Amino acid sequence: MGSSERDVARSRAQTLFGKERTKERTKDEEFRQARDKERQEEAAKMARLRALRLAKEKEEKEEADRKAATAVARRKPAL
């Protein structure tokens, strides 16, 4: 193989591998973006569920406090 043929072969190889690397980088970036989006969605879901759970716990505690206060008021003897 002559030097000009090598240069041509090298040029073609760099062109092909350069395109492949660009495709790989694009795929990697798309994958990262999709993964980040999924993580954000999952975090939002967990935050929403946590807020609902905390609200429910607060409501249950308030109801238990009301029942306890009512029970105490019934136990006190009338003077």
Number of helices: 1
Alpha carbon gap, first and last residue: 116 Å
**What's the alpha carbon Rg, rounded to whole Å?**
34 Å
Biggest β-sheet: count, sense, barrel? none
From the spread of the alpha carbons, the general shape counts as: rod-shaped
Summarize model confidence as the mean pLDDT. 88
The percent range for strand residues is: under 5%
- SSE arrangement, N to C: H
| Uncertain runs | none
Quantity of strands, as a count: 0
Structural class: mainly alpha
Query: Percent range for helical residues?
Result: over 70%
Topology of this structure?
Elements: H1 3-75
Describe the structure in your own words:
The protein contains one helix and no strands. It has one helix at 3-75.
Quick overview:
This protein is 92% helix and 0% strand. It has 79 residues and is an all-alpha fold.
Keywords:
mainly alpha, rod-shaped, 79 residues, single chain
